[in-house]
């Protein structure tokens, strides 16, 4: 009971896995959620349990409201408490302003925006019942500070989450702090290849972007820094300072074709 407990959504793989392992190494008990990545979740769980803390992997369809609302009580049942939520799980599918429709917008909203709000509500209620304080960290995207029309529905969902981050921080203070971490190009995703990934990083002022370890550092900082709420840390190698008319994948592809 002396260890703080954090729930990391989508913690089975990629950035979520790195965040979960980083927090476990820092002394947190960690619960991760997965949906399709059951084998990867069990692998991450084994790695988490090599340390001294407690760890659990929970199946969750975050687009289902009842299942999402059940997560915080389930973490409390297994750990005895919960102190923080890292909303990392995300859908990232391509569309643009000409092709987006209600189905795509709903898909991204139910994956990227609504679950983070529901989990913040549940954590806030738990903290009100116990008298403790806690924190929510939402994974955003530097695209919000450097917008382009690619991945239209995805970007809209993250813009809504950034607005929700500020509003939740106002509504739930001082019991719950809410902040954001906005990565840039962190891992290969979609149709981007290794060469395009390398070229994309060179477009940034620092000539690098945001490896998952840097993102995990920023998440851990917000979770443990009591004077911060309602703000977002951009972890992107300065990508948000550049004017990029298209997604970095397309710009890197053009560079590689020259």
From TrEMBL:
Superkingdom in the source lineage: Bacteria
What's in the keyword line of the UniProt record? Oxidoreductase
Question: Do you know which SUPFAM superfamilies this protein is assigned to?
Answer: NAD(P)-binding Rossmann-fold domains
Q: Does the keyword Oxidoreductase apply?
A: yes
Q: Which Gene3D superfamilies match?
A: NAD(P)-binding Rossmann-like Domain
The answer to keyword rRNA-binding applying to this record is no
Cross-referenced InterPro entries, in alphabetical order? Answer: NAD(P)-bd_dom_sf (IPR036291), SDR_fam (IPR002347)
Under Gene Ontology molecular function, one entry of this record is: oxidoreductase activity
Q: Which family does it belong to?
A: Belongs to the short-chain dehydrogenases/reductases (SDR) family.
Could you tell me what this protein is called?
NAD(P)-dependent dehydrogenase (Short-subunit alcohol dehydrogenase family)
């Amino acid at each position: 009971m002396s260890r703080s407990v954090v729930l990391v959504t989508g913690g089975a793989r990629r950035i979520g896995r790195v965040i979960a392992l980083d927090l476990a190494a820092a002394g947190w008990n960690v619960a991760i959620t997965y949906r399709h990545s059951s084998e990867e979740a069990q692998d991450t769980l084994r790695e988490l349990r090599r340390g001294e803390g407690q760890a659990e992997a929970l199946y969750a369809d975050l687009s289902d409201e009842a299942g999402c609302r059940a997560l915080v009580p389930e973490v409390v049942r297994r750990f005895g408490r919960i102190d923080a939520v890292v909303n990392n799980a995300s859908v990232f599918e391509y569309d643009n302003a000409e092709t987006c429709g209600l189905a795509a917008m709903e898909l991204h909203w139910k994956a990227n925006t609504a679950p983070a709000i529901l989990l913040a509500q549940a954590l806030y209620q738990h903290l009100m019942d116990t008298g403790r304080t806690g924190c929510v960290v939402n994974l955003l995207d530097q695209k919000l500070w450097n917008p382009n029309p690619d991945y239209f529905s995805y970007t809209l969902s993250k813009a809504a989450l950034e607005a929700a981050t500020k509003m939740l921080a106002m509504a739930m203070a001082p019991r719950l702090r809410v902040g954001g971490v906005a990565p840039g190009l962190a891992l290969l995703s979609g149709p981007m290849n290794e060469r395009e990934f390398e070229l994309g990083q060179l477009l940034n002022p620092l000539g690098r972007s945001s490896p998952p370890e840097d993102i995990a550092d920023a998440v851990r900082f917000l979770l443990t820094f009591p004077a911060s709420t309602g703000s977002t840390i951009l972890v992107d190698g300065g990508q948000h300072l550049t004017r990029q008319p298209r997604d970095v994948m397309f710009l890197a592809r053009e560079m590689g074709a020259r």
